[in-house]
Give the backbone structure.
Amino acid sequence: MINDRSEKLFQRAIKVIPGGVNSPVRFFRPYPFFVSSGLGSKIVTADHQTYLDYCMGYGSLIFGHAYLPILESVKTQLDNGTLFCIPSEKEIYLAELLTKIIPCAERVRLVNTGAEATMTAIRLSRAFTRRKKILKFKGGYHGAYDYVLVKAGSGAATIPSSDGSLQEISEETLLVEYNDFGDLERIIKKESENISCLIMEPVLANYGLLLPEKNYLTEIRKITKKYGILLIFDEVITGFRLAVGGCSEFFGITPDIATFSKSFGNGFPIAAICGKKEIMDQLSPSGNVYQASTYAGNPVSVTAAITTVESLLKNKNKIYPTIARLCDTLVMGIKDGVKEFAEHYTINSIGSLFQIFFTADAVSTPLDILKCDTKMFENLFWDLLKKNIFIPPSMYETCFISYSHSDEDIEKTIECYSDSLNKYTK
Ligand SMILES: Cc1ncc(COP(=O)(O)O)c(C=O)c1O
C-alpha cells in the first residue's frame, strides 16, 4: 500500500482538526487514508490507489459515487440558487412523494441530518404523550446528542457514554436488549406511564448488523400501541435501502413516526421526519414543538433527494432485487470459498447490507457481538485494504452494496475475503 501523501495529510490535519478527522468513525490507526475522488463502486485515494468501496458513505450511496442523474439535476439547481430560506415548490413535491411511499407519512418535515430527525421525533413524542422518558436499544445509534448517546452503537460502541453529557438527561433514557422481547415487556410494564416513545433501528445496523427475530417487530408494534408509547422507526440507514418504503414496507409494520436520511439523498445532506398528522402538526408554526434550521429543505439537497427517490421508485423492481442478489452472491461465495475456517465466523446479511463476525455462534444480540474476536476483524480489515477493498474499519459498523457494484466487483471481493479467511486457518 502506498500511503505517503495520506500520512503527510494526516500530519497536517491533526494540527487543525481534532484527531485529524471530522467524525470519529473515520479514524483508524495509525492514520486513515485520504480520499480524492469516487465514481460508482470505487474511490481513489490521495496516493492514487483505487479501492472497491463497501462503506459507501456509511450506507448513504445506494446508487454509488457521483451518480450521473443526481449530479445533472443538482447542477441545474445550482444555476438557479442554493439557498433561499423561503418556501419552494420542490419541497412540497418531495413531501408529497414521501406521503405516497412511506406508510406512516401523513406529514413530512425536512431537516439536514439523521440526528436532527431523531431528536425532533423524540421531542414530538414527549409533547404528544406528555411523558418524559424514552426507550432505546443498547447498541442502537441515533445521533451524537445527550439523550441517545447512552450505550450507543457506531463510533460510540466502545465508550460507555460521552464526557460532557448530562447525567440527568441520560437518566431519562431507558435501555433494552435488542431481540429480547421479555426485557422490553418487563420495562414497559414497570414504567409505561413515564415512557413517551421507543426509538429503534428495526434492523440494528450500528452494532454490527443485527436482524429482528421472527415476529419481534410485530410484538413491539402491539405492546407500544397497548401502552400508548409512540413507536419511532429510525430508518436513517434502512430507509430507501431495504425497500423504497423502508422497513415499514419490508416488514409490513407501520410505526407512528419514521426518520430518514442517508439513501434518501444519495450523499447529499438531507433527512426527514415522517409521521401521523396529529403528531406532526404539533411542530412549529402549526403547533408548539419548536424545530428550526437554516438549511432545512435547501434546494440543492431537495433536488438530489427528488432525483434519488424518483429513480428508486421508477426502477424499484430492478434495483432492490439486484443489490440483494449481489449481497447474497457475496455471502454465499465467501461461505463456499471458506470451508475449513467455517466454524470460526458467521455473516449476517439482509438486502444490500452484510457484516462478518468472528465467532462460532449465531449473532443476534449486542451481547453476542461482545463475544466476537475484534483482533481478527482488524486483521481482515487490513488484509482487504491491501487487496484494494475498503470496508468500514470497525466490526460495529455494516458493509453496504450499491447499485453501482458489478458482478465482477463481487467476484473479486469473494476471492479477497476467501483468500484472507483461508489464511487464518493455517
Ligand atoms: C440509524 C441512525 N440514526 C441516526 C444517525 C445520525 O445521523 P447523522 O450522522 O446524519 O446525524 C445515524 C448515523 O449514522 C444512524 O445510522
Observations:
- The radius of gyration is 21 Å.
- The mean pLDDT is 96.
- The pocket of pyridoxal-5'-phosphate is lined by residues 58, 113-115, 118, 141-143, 154, 201, 206, 234, 236-237, 261 (CB under 6 Å).
